[in-house]
Amino acid sequence: xxxVPALDRPPAAVADTPVTQPRKGFxxxxxxxxxxxxxxxxxxxxxxxxxxxxxxVSLHRWDGLGSMEWAGLSQYxxxxxxxxxxxSVGNTVLIWALATFxxxxxxxxxxVMLNSAVRFKNVYRFAYFLPNxxxxxxxxxxxxxxxxxxxxxxxALLQALGLDQVAWLNTPxxxxxxxxxxxxxxxxxxxxxxxxxxxxxxxxxxxxAARMDGAGPAQTFFRVTLPLMRPVLLFVLVISTVxxxxxxxxxxxxxxxxxxxxxxxxxxxxxxxxxxxxxxxQTFDNNDFGYGAAVAWGIFLVVILFSIINWRxxxxxxxx
Amino acid sequence: xxxxxSTRRPKAIRGTRSRGIALHxxxxxxxxxxxxPFYWAVIMSTHTSSEIFSYPPKLLPGPHFLENVxxxxxxxxxxxxxxxxxxxxxSVTVLVLFFDSLAAFVFAKFxxxxxxxxxxxxxxxxxxxxxxxxxxxxxIMAKLGWIGTMTSLIVPAAANAFGIFxxxxxxxxxxxxxxLDASRIDGANFLRQxxxxxxxxxxxxxAFLGIFTFMGQWNDYAWPLIALTNPDNVTLQVALSQLNGxxxxxxYGMVMTGALLALVPLLIVFAIGARxxxxxxxxxxxx
Lengths: 320, 287
Description:
Largest sheet of chain A: 2 strands, antiparallel
Structural class of chain A: mainly alpha
CATH topology of the domain at 76-247 in chain B: MetI-like fold
Helix content of chain A: over 70%
Order of helices and strands of chain B: HHHHHHHHHHHHHHH
Largest interface: A-B, 112 and 108 residues
Number of strands of chain A: 2
Number of domains of chain A: 2
Shape of chain B: globular
Number of helices of chain B: 15
Strand order of the largest sheet of chain A: 1-2
CATH superfamily of the domain at 76-247 in chain B: MetI-like
Largest sheet of chain B: none
CATH architecture of the domain at 76-247 in chain B: Orthogonal Bundle
Number of strands of chain B: 0
CATH architecture of the largest domain in chain A: Orthogonal Bundle
Distance between the termini of chain B: 26 Å
Radius of gyration of chain A: 26 Å
Radius of gyration of chain B: 24 Å
Oligomer: heterodimer
CATH topology of the largest domain in chain A: MetI-like fold
Strand content of chain A: under 5%
Number of helices of chain A: 14
Distance between the termini of chain A: 56 Å
CATH superfamily of the largest domain in chain A: MetI-like
Shape of chain A: globular
């Protein structure tokens, strides 16, 4: 059995025998197709068909059980004017920004420090990565107690300092800051490890050359380190955008006790209701599958849009 | 930041030592911030709720851990849901390791018609967000009668684009063509090549993918929350969330004990594979 197909076969041979070739080809390669088939079959059943089907569902009114009723583009029309959806977009972007920019800054600082500290590097890396492997549910419960209004640690600290207490999980900004803090805590170490790997690829001669040219530490960082780190920065930014804009578990668990109407409502004033929470609320609480599908496509477009903007921003700075 | 570059400069010895101490001081603060929520969970799970609700907050562990554990076991089927989590995460990990590495082997080492298109499709699939498929997936699962069972979590996760892509990158470098040629001359067929030539070489890669998959499945929450409709038969994360939803405002010590105990298995897995994970994570990003 020929397991490594002949690459040197001239393309003309294919044209010479157009009828028998595909069949022969498939017989020759069937085991390869079989080997990759599980993923594609699963994707067909639980990926492609669902995505196509969700487009179909979004054009209907449907409660998930009864019969579907054709609705044309009316779900999308409603989505465009739905202030609840747009406020969830605003919440998501705010929380994302509150979490991502401090996180990238802290991760970069941590990575630069780790890159120079020779001793205990593995201990630090292990400890910094730990938050990322813990379950969001468990850690959101812990953060819920840290930010609790009545017995939370943050408020106890404020009180000890003689400052006013804040109803963290009860005010629009408090809610967003609590969620963003949780995300920053969970992802800073992860991104620091990635930045560190990037820093370690920068050859030492470049720093030496910069020093010879009389560059100070700050200048070296902004002129040498940062430009070379651009691909890694882009990777981190895109991953943070794609995951951050789809945040669900953090606000859901953190705020499930503060809202009484639905566990997906995002706390008092819906201040922590992210796009994906809104999707879950519409679909599985209100059983509005048709509108839920339209919301899902709306989320998809927002995420794509933001990824493109990020990509452009980081790339344009590279052209300067 | 100044100290970073100073370590690279042989002449700048002055002040290096004090800078080194300052650097470690900052790093230790970061380390404490990373570790603090775990410590906080330990404190809360060792106090009664009335102690937790009182001021000033307790900063040292108390004696009520076993009491909290007893409450926890009375309120949720902790070991039942942990068994479900182990079942799901374990099965998915085994399936992913097999299917992903098999497909990755094909993409890394063989030419066949349609290879480029199929691989490009894989990359596009990688980027499709989960909630786009959530509704139809739910409907399909309901039709298959899988809703409420662990099957609804295991089957769709059995192979994934990330793992295939990642293993392919790994295999391209790790498996040498001469080795494959030699085994083919010895009469090894495709499956024997996969099993006896490819797999032994890529063990470290498999370890990373396995640990990564296991942790991801163990922590998965959104889909299980929707798919596991029977509240008595859920995974640990969903059970924890239920517990927090019903007792989160009253018996805090118990809820926190649940959170702490749910973290333990994962911390063990991470402790075993940490070196591998941290090293490979960096490699993947800068490739």
